[in-house]
Amino acid sequence: MSALTTRPSDAEGLVDRHTPLVELKNRLDASGANLAQLSAALYKQKNAQIAANLYTQDRYCATGSDATAVICDPHHDQSRTCVSWCVNHYTGLNRHPEVLRAAQEATEQYGTGAGTSGMSGGMCDVHKQLESELARRVAKPAALLFPTGYTANLGALSALARSGDLILFDRESHASIIDGIKMSGAKWLPFRHNDVADLERKLAHHGSRYRDVLVVAESAYSMSGDFAPLADLVALKRRYQFRLYIDEAHAFGFYGQDGGGYCRQLGLSDDVDFVMSTLSKSTGSLGGFIACAEQYIPLLQWCANSYIFQACVSPADAAAALASLRLLRSPSPVVQRLHENNRYMRDALQAVGIDLKNSQSPVVPIYIDQPERLLRVNRRLYENGVFSVSVVYPAVKPSEGRIRLIVTARHSQQNIDYTVRQIVQCLASEG
Q: Cβ distance 87 to 407 under 8 Å?
């Protein structure tokens, strides 16, 4: 028997049913597994987790995204009504009657789909209105609309840097950022999460060797709920003359004047060269955008493949986002409700001794460093009517697993109280 057939089976023997599938994939990659062996091993691992009722990633909201939903488990033919904490609709505007009406009217007026990319005539009036409003909202001269937030980062970062440039990015950056950076052809280095001193060391050591330097961070981090030290990054920029790119996906809409984001809240919009965000979170729609000086727009239009070769968001999505933006103008009752719920949730969890670390935003992580216990706790929560998903490697380090709770304006205090009680009980029972 060849080494190629024996090594993967040896690797499989080192794992148990709690091992995340991507971690298993990496082990098998290192052992030389081919495609057939790799897919067979992951299929076997997934089925082992399904049999133990540990696999949550195929569960879905049968009744759609909301604070409570009927959650279906297709593998066990089960469904139950749960308090849902897995959806990024922070403001809950995906259910607002004005947003629904705007999407319906746009569909009737413009049809269901764009049919082609923005470079090929796919945009209509509502897309252009949305671009103008997005630029105004984040206090930038111009904005370019992408089909999704993921493809906005992918396209923009692959277009803005090239061979001979350097990109320094926060180690906890979203996968879309990392994928875009890798596609750029530039030299890239991560810096320790929110560690300005580590970033400065890398700038001092490497910066002068490259034509252009781009520093990339998120204003609020999607897995830990903490904020970037934006003021410190801007101060560093004044000393080292790099360009600064900030992903506002988890802050746009509910921080800053009119929901313009965390950069705008801190008065730093002029110091940030590129502001990116998604429309799938606070605006309850779909799409992404890059806002910047007008001089960068032709470069993005002609060099970001995910803009050139992908159809625009539908007119209904664009109209829904525009309607949401109107509802997010300050003072916004839904934004006020979101921040009240965030404070209430945090106070309740900290009152029972749960350490939220540096989290501040409506992303509330419950850290469980043992993968086996994490999956068991999440299973028990689902059985008791609380739904979220286990955040495991590669989204976070293997030792930093967590259950991520995303607080929204549509959650009630009763939802929060019930969830906190269940978390306490499940942590105790699965200790």
A: no
* pLDDT tens digits, one per residue of 116-173: 999 999 999 999 999 999 999 999 999 999 999 999 999 999 999 999 999 999 999 9
Q: In terms of domains, do 218 and 253 share one?
A: yes
Closest by Cα among 359, 152, 137, 173 to 264: 137
Report strand pairing: 390-391 vs 213-218.
unpaired
Radius of gyration of the chain measured on its C-alpha atoms: 22
| Last residue in a domain, options 327, 347, 379 | 327
CB-based contact 337:177 (threshold 8 Å): no
SS (H, E, C) 181-248: HHHHCCEEEEECCCCHHHHHHHHHHHHHHCCCEEEEEECECCCCCCECCHHHHHHHHHHHCCEEEEEC
Residues in contact with 208: Cβ distance below 8 Å, sequence separation at least 6, in sequence order: none
Are 118 and 139 in contact by the 8 Å Cβ rule? The answer is no
The token duo for 260 is: 């313009």
- The answer to whether the beta carbons of residues 198 and 171 sit under 8 Å apart is no
Pair (323, 338) in one structural domain: no
Q: Are residues 282 and 341 in the same domain?
A: no
